[in-house]
Amino acid sequence: MAVTAQSIGRKRNLLHRYKLVMEEFERHYNPDIPITVIYRKHIYPKFGISRDTLYAIFNTDFEAEKAKIEAAKAKVYGGSLFD
């Protein structure tokens, strides 16, 4: 798959959405409350994602993904404007 500006933007927006889901989860997280209850009451009504997607978000390394996006952006756009 070719790396295009559109695919970079899509990945960046997906990562941003994942961060919003994680912030919402952390806002309601309590070790005494099961994850499925947090998902059912707070995550699903707001974001409409499946439980499998929620668990995929839990396993996402945000810093590594952000670095990949920046590397792809540099490759597509030819570096930074201020280098």
Could you explain how this protein is built, in words?
The chain is mostly helical and 83 residues long. The chain has one domain (5-77). It contains four helices and no strands. The protein has helices at 5-28, 35-47, 51-58, 62-77.
Classification by helices and strands: mainly alpha
**Rg for CA atoms:** 16 Å
Rounded to the nearest angstrom, the distance between the terminal CA atoms is 28 Å
How confident overall, as mean pLDDT?
A: 90
Kindly give the count of domains.
1
Following the backbone from N to C, one meets helices and strands in this order, namely: HHHH
Share of residues in helices? over 70%
Number of strands: 0
At a glance:
The chain has one domain.
List the helices and strands and how they pair.
Layout: H1 5-28, H2 35-47, H3 51-58, H4 62-77
Helix pairs in contact: 1-2, 1-4
Question: Which properties best describe this structure?
Answer:
83 residues, elongated, mainly alpha
